[in-house]
């Protein structure tokens, strides 16, 4: 079925800032087809929107992508309760908290427009994988993560599991994670 995405997403055909020559074009468009991404602006009359590939992703945006993928039925079930909330991500936030992807102590609803760090992404991705019954079969040695000592203690296990499962990799050939 189709995922719960903004109505305008059905009109989306391409992004002006992620053309066919962009290194992530195919992956981005696959996620658009699956209903996980809808871009950062409403498409014009020709179906062209923007994606903002070089912008920082907020916590709200990241959690929205994950909940659209994992919990579309839950989002549809509570959509009416949230349509007038004035907070575009409120349903996604509620589902993420209810399903254990995040806790209110980790991310208050008021802090969801802050930038999502890579170590926070690792935490949510590992929890999402666990929901799907996936776990790291074998953990990589921490030495393979060049800046593992800079990862927050709360996130160390998540980062290691995320690397081990191939969900996030380093930002260079040394395996530097750049947690923040």
Provide keyphrases for this structure.
single chain, 180 residues, mainly alpha, two-stranded parallel ribbon, 6 helices, 2 strands, globular
Please characterize this protein's 3D structure.
36% of the residues lie in helices and 2% in strands. It is an all-alpha fold and 180 residues long. The protein has a two-stranded parallel sheet. The protein contains 6 helices and 2 strands, in the order E-H-E-H-H-H-H-H. Helix 2 crosses helix 4, helix 3 packs across helix 4 and helix 5 crosses helix 6. The radius of gyration is 17 Å and the shape is globular. The mean pLDDT is 88.
Strand order of the largest sheet: 1-2
Q: Rounded to an integer, what's the Rg over CA atoms?
A: 17 Å
Order of SSEs: EHEHHHHH
Strand content: under 5%
Quaternary status: single chain
| Average residue pLDDT | 88
N- and C-termini, Cα separation = 35 Å
Percent range of helical residues: 25-40%
Instruction: Count every helix, treating DSSP H or I runs of 4 or more residues as helices.
Output: 6
Main beta sheet strand tally, sense and closure: 2 strands, parallel
Number of strands: 2
Low-pLDDT residue intervals, each spanning 5 or more residues: none
